Amino acid sequence: EPEVTQTPSHQVTQMGQEVILRCVPISNHLYFYWYRQILGQKVEFLVSFYNNEISEKSEIFDDQFSVERPDGSNFTLKIRSTKLEDSAMYFCASSATENSPLHFGNGTRLTVT
Amino acid sequence: LAKTTQPISMDSYEGQEVNITCSHNNIATNDYITWYQQFPSQGPRFIIQGYKTKVTNEVASLFIPADRKSSTLSLPRVSLSDTAVYYCLVSERGSGYSTLTFGKGTMLLVSP
User: Fold this and answer.
1) Dihedral angle sign, alpha carbons of residues A95, A96, A101, A104
2) C-alpha triplet A48, A54, A58: angle, nearest 5°
3) Structurally, how many domains does chain A consist of?
4) Most buried in the list A12, A27, A31, A35, measured by CB within 10 Å?
């Protein structure tokens, strides 16, 4: 079964540094998403992306965040200047259509020190 | 968005059937009900989705009464590997699944 893959599985960075989290969605999917989950808390929506542009974003997704689909296979989340509170699991997801269920990757654990 | 309420935790034993009920009293006409499963340190995994009556797949069944104000996820003959958090979500079709809002879910613990 095709799956969403995310790299790295764990990223440690210092406060103020930039990080890029990478995702390879399922190949025939057109809708892409980022969610995050702070340890012990709920899975939170960050942003959705379709047709090379952001379609929705939450209030968490401020100017420090950006997303990009640099080529036909990758989907990235960039955090420009990380803060301690950005420490969380970041999940990428994709869906074939707007109405299809989301397929999630296994996440990148980001630790900001 | 319709708010969902589900038990915080449930306990079961291997081989038993587990039913997890979710309340969504203010569900709208266009809303669908979707259940996800999440293991520790993994992303949520889609289990099943339905609109009304009963839906069954190879993993679970979903029962939705006529008023659609609740739904029950049924897991037949659970095993230890079914220990996970189960999320009930309500979302409007056509508005994009970006509107999926995860609650705290139900932590199911299956014991030998």
Assistant:
1) negative
2) 55
3) 1
4) A35
CA–CA distance, A1 with A3 (Å, rounded to integer): 6
Q: Cα separation of B82 and B78, whole Å? A: 6
Q: Give the CATH number of the domain where residue A68 resides.
A: 2.60.40.10
CATH code, B48: 2.60.40.10
Total number of domains in chain B: 1
- Of the residues A3, A43, A103, the best mutation for testing chain B's interface (the one with the most B CB atoms within 10 Å of its CB) is A43
CB contact under 8 A, B97 and A101: yes
Task: State the nearest Cα–Cα gap between B64 and chain A, in angstroms.
Answer: 18
A90: Cα separation from own chain's centroid: 6
CB contact under 8 A, A31 and B44: no
The minimum CA-CA distance between A37 and chain B, rounded to whole Å, is 9
The full DSSP string for A14-53 is -TT--EEEEEE--TT--EEEEEEE-TTS-EEEEEEEETTE
- Please give the residue range of the domain that contains residue A75: 5-112
Are the C-beta atoms of A103 and A26 separated by less than 8 Å? yes
In this predicted structure, what is the pLDDT of residue B64?
A: 97
Q: Using one digit for the tens of pLDDT, what is the confidence trace for A61-72?
A: 999 999 999 887
